[in-house]
Design goal:
Number of strands: 18
CATH class of the domain at 175-259 and 335-401 and 438-462: Alpha Beta
Shape: globular
Number of helices: 16
Protein name: Gfo/Idh/MocA family protein
CATH topology of the domain at 175-259 and 335-401 and 438-462: Dihydrodipicolinate Reductase, domain 2
Largest sheet: 10 strands, mixed
Oligomer: single chain
Radius of gyration: 23 Å
Distance between the termini: 48 Å
Strand content: 15-25%
Length: about 475
């Protein structure tokens, strides 16, 4: 087979069913660009599904974008959001009628069922109650991860989904990213032989850690969710998914080492705006991060359009003087570990290690999968396959997904591809179209809760589903 015909064959087959490793080997020392998002076959939607969004913040906005760009498939007809700025912004984007705008999730369910599904993208501690009520009333649900803050609540949602026969899609978006889909396909089709072990790194990136898990909404595990679930249930899930064997035992270690009051530099103040003597040189300066570099402003609810740069700067400084985002990272009420390592044993003797690290200059998951006949090494930008028999390497490069106007979709394309599959599942009432139905996604949560139990007890813990 000449190279031109080989590439044609690959473009047809790699999107769904893997071809033999012999054919892959013919791409030795080269790269193959693929886009599962366009290769996957989808049935035409006869009628757009209708959705109500509970929580109009960052994630609700991301998932709602799919509807804005694909009105023939999905239509947002309602929103519940207590923050009036977010409520107005979301309602305007989706042209939501005044009677379908609510302040609280409870108000939605005071009315008879008026949509096909709900998106639940509220804070972690507000997942359980609205999800249970939505299922009781006959709605299908797209549920942001983590499923719920406790194992008991997670299992209760699963039980309610089974009882009512409704769909609950968990937002484990990495399962839909072409990069991870390709990783799993290669393993499933035997490219590296029997899987022996997996090493997975989640580098949070130091400023992301400071923003979300020191100053931000998830800074306190007691009021939200332990960081192993809030941040890394994606990673527990993807490790389980690519290994495709039940988890059995887990052991974890980690603690809050750096973001503590005793590590506060001399001359620091309660807020970066209080005349801190070391603010200019501090890597975690809120003034530099939010005001000077204008990063993550959407989380501060700062208007980004139709406002001068000077006025925007004034609003940012005002927010830093009144919100947690302006506080010193060493003087918060945070308790989330800033480094966390866990080892997991799966069936058939397969082992995996997951390392979640705050102190990195970079983000993006790194994964190494060791098999008896080859290995896979990737960083979400490229996935390098090495065949032990020949020593040849093949690099797979996921193409940036562009789904009808939504370019470079989040999580490597996973965000929009997940919503697309959810639309298909609801429209056809077929949950098997989802990679992350709650019946399979719950295992990663149990793993996370058991990891916390291990970390706090200094013991290895059995995983029981």
């Amino acid at each position: 087979m000449n190279r031109r015909n080989l590439l044609k064959t690959l473009s047809i087959t790699l999107g769904s069913s893997m071809i033999t490793t012999k054919v892959i080997g013919q791409l030795a020392d080269d790269k193959f660009v693929f886009d599962i998002g366009t290769a996957k076959k989808y049935e035409p939607i006869k009628k757009a599904i209708t959705v109500v969004t509970i929580g109009g913040g960052n994630r609700g906005t991301v998932y709602g974008t799919y509807a804005a760009n694909n009105p023939d498939e999905m239509k947002i007809i309602g929103v519940a959001e207590p923050d009036q700025y977010r409520n107005e912004k979301y309602a305007t984007q989706h042209k939501i009628e005044p009677q379908n705008r609510f302040n609280t999730w409870e108000e939605i369910f005071e009315r008879p069922k008026f949509a096909d599904a709900v998106i639940i993208s509220t804070p972690d501690n507000l997942h359980f109650a609205p999800c249970m009520k939505a299922l009781e009333m006959g709605y299908d649900v797209l549920l942001e991860k983590p499923i719920a803050p406790t194992e008991k609540e997670c299992r209760a949602i699963l039980a309610m989904a089974k009882k009512t026969g409704r769909i609950v899609a968990v937002c484990h978006v990495l399962r839909y990213a072409p990069y991870f889909v390709k990783m799993r396909e290669l393993i499933t089709k035997g490219a590296i032989g029997e899987v022996v072990s997996v090493q997975h790194l989640e580098p949070i990136e130091h400023l992301h850690m400071a923003h979300s898990y020191v100053r931000g909404n998830w800074h306190n595990s007691k009021t939200t969710t332990p960081i192993i679930l809030a941040k890394s249930c994606h990673d527990l899930d993807i490790v389980r998914w690519v290994i495709d064997k039940p988890s059995q035992r887990i052991v974890a270690m980690g603690n809050l080492k750096w973001f503590r009051s005793e590590n506060a530099p001399k001359g620091s103040t309660a807020r970066c705006t209080d005349g801190c003597a070391v603010e200019k040189e501090c890597p975690y300066s809120a003034i530099r991060h939010y005001h000077d570099e204008r990063k993550r402003l959407s989380y501060l609810d700062i208007p980004l359009k139709n406002i001068s740069k000077e006025e925007q700067g004034k609003l940012i400084l005002a927010k830093l003087k009144t919100s947690n985002y302006g506080r010193c990272v060493y003087q918060m009420e945070n308790d989330q570990p800033d480094h966390y390592v866990t080892s997991i044993q799966f069936a058939d003797g397969v082992t995996a290690s997951l390392s979640m690290e705050a102190f990195t200059s970079y983000a993006g998951r790194r994964t190494r999968i060791m098999g008896a006949m080859g290995d896979l090494v990737g960083d979400m930008n490229e996935l390098v396959y090495t065949d032990f028999k020949t020593g040849k390497k093949t690099t797979f490069v996921p193409k940036a997904v562009d789904l009808e106007g939504y370019k470079n979709a989040g999580h490597g394309g996973g965000d929009m591809l997940m919503v697309k599959d959810f639309v298909q599942a609801v429209a056809t009432q077929n949950p098997s179209l989802l990679s992350s139905d709650i019946s399979v996604s719950i295992e990663s949560h149990v793993m996370g809760f058991m990891a916390e139990k291990s970390r706090k007890s200094n013991k290895m813990v059995d995983i029981k589903l």
